[in-house]
């Protein structure tokens, strides 16, 4: 049975796939930053923060969620002197590598605690230590099956699944798990959902995801 | 259940494979797999490495029930799970 996972945990799992990993170096480089962004999306779904029309991120409930990575992000955001816009937060974390990696590490640790991921210590050329993560319960496939069952079949869809697909789509991860035909069908379903009531709450998240990507692209361009 | 069986044979069987259940129900393979993992569709499996055997009548009834709850009551899979596995 699929354990309750956050968008960030699902993203980390799907991104760690070694067999189908055809990710661009840019993606691998920013996995921690993307995890932070996924945590932000999750906090919005959990009603902890809100993406305003002018893109400002407002904390509406600072009570801990019980998830270490989400709570760490919440505490960092709470410590900010004034509310920032999505793009500002994306650039903030882009420039604070330690903080993004801390949140990413917490998300991975949580997956290990849930016995979904197993960490295997490996050595490259018998010298350089490297950690290898193994999806022991094949949860990746289960997440993909969940997306297929909800979005490629008729019926009501969970907000969480829509937000997950929008996030995965923005990171081009869907290409690794879904065929061209399925991706086309997913796109059509999302377009259809955009006109439905459920998308009213997802709309701000959709916009925020696009703004995060724009900010990361600008930060990367400026840094190079 | 190694070889492909005729529809007559499948309809006479007490247990069917997931592919046969797809054929009978017209529900996507991965969706049945997901429902099974979520405990919504009953199956038997002697070992985790062995093929799952679905009780034909019960599994088809359950799939029809899920479809009905989705269409008539507009429930999400999570809500259906809560309703059926109470």
In short:
The complex is a heterodimer of chains A (224) and B (86). Chain A is mostly helical. Chain A has helices at residues 7-15, 25-29, 31-45, 68-78, 86-95, 97-113, 139-151, 159-170, 174-177, 180-194, 199-223, and strands at residues 49-51, 57-59, 117-124, 128-135.
Give a written overview of the molecule.
The complex is a heterodimer of chains A (224) and B (86). Chain A is mainly alpha-helical and 224 residues long. In chain A, 61% of the residues lie in helices and 10% in strands. Chain A contains eleven helices and four strands. In chain A, the strands form two sheets. In chain A, strands 1-2 form a two-stranded antiparallel ribbon. The longest helix of chain A is centred in the C-terminal third of the chain and has 25 residues, at 199-223. Chain B has five helices and two strands, in the order αβααβαα. With 86 residues, chain B is mostly helical. Chain B has a two-stranded antiparallel ribbon. Chain B starts with 6 loop residues before the first helix and ends with a helix. The interface between A and B is medium-sized, with 16 and 18 residues.
Q: What's the helical proportion of residues of chain A?
A: 55-70%
Rg of chain A: 17 Å
Largest sheet of chain A: 2 strands, antiparallel
What's the N-to-C terminus distance of chain B?
A: 33 Å
What's the shape of chain B? globular
Mean model confidence by pLDDT of chain A = 87
Strands ordered across the widest β-sheet of chain B = 1-2
Assembly category:
heterodimer
Topology of chain A as a string of helices (H) and strands (E): HHHEEHHHEEHHHHH
The low-pLDDT segments of chain B are none
Which radius of gyration of chain B do the C-alpha atoms yield? 13 Å
Shape, principal axes of CA atoms of chain A:
globular
User: What kind of sheet is the major sheet of chain B?
Assistant: 2 strands, antiparallel
List SSEs of chain B in N-to-C order.
Answer: HEHHEHH
Strand content of chain A: 5-15%
Which two chains touch over the largest interface?
Answer: A-B, 16 and 18 residues
The helix tally of chain A amounts to 11
């Amino acid at each position: 049975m699929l354990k309750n996972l956050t968008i960030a945990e699902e993203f980390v799992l799907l991104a760690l796939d070694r067999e189908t990993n055809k990710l661009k170096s840019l993606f691998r480089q920013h996995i921690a930053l993307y995890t932070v962004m996924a945590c932000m999306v999750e906090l919005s779904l959990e009603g902890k923060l809100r993406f305003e029309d002018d893109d400002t991120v407002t904390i509406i409930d600072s009570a801990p969620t019980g998830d270490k990575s989400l709570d760490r992000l919440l505490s960092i955001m709470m410590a900010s002197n004034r509310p920032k816009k999505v793009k500002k937060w994306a650039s903030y974390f882009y420039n604070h590598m330690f903080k993004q990696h801390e949140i990413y590490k917490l998300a991975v640790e949580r997956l290990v605690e849930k016995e979904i991921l197993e960490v295997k210590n490996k050595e490259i050329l018998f010298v350089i230590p490297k950690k290898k993560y193994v999806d022991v319960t094949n949860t990746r496939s289960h997440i993909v099956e969940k997306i297929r069952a909800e979005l490629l079949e008729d019926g009501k869809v969970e907000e969480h699944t829509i937000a997950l697909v929008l996030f995965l789509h923005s990171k081009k991860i869907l290409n690794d798990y879904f065929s061209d035909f399925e991706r086309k069908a997913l796109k059509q379903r999302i377009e259809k959902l955009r006109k439905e009531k459920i998308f009213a709450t997802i709309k701000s998240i959709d916009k925020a995801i696009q703004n995060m990507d724009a900010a990361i692209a600008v930060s990367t361009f400026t840094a190079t | 259940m190694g070889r492909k069986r005729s529809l007559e044979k499948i309809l006479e069987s007490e247990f069917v494979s997931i592919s046969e259940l797809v054929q009978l129900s017209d529900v996507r393979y991965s969706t049945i797999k997901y429902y099974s993992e979520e405990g919504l569709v009953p199956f038997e499996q002697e070992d985790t490495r062995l093929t799952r055997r679905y009780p034909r009548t019960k599994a088809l009834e359950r799939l029809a029930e899920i479809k009905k709850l989705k269409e008539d009551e507009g429930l999400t899979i999570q809500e259906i799970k809560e309703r059926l596995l109470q």
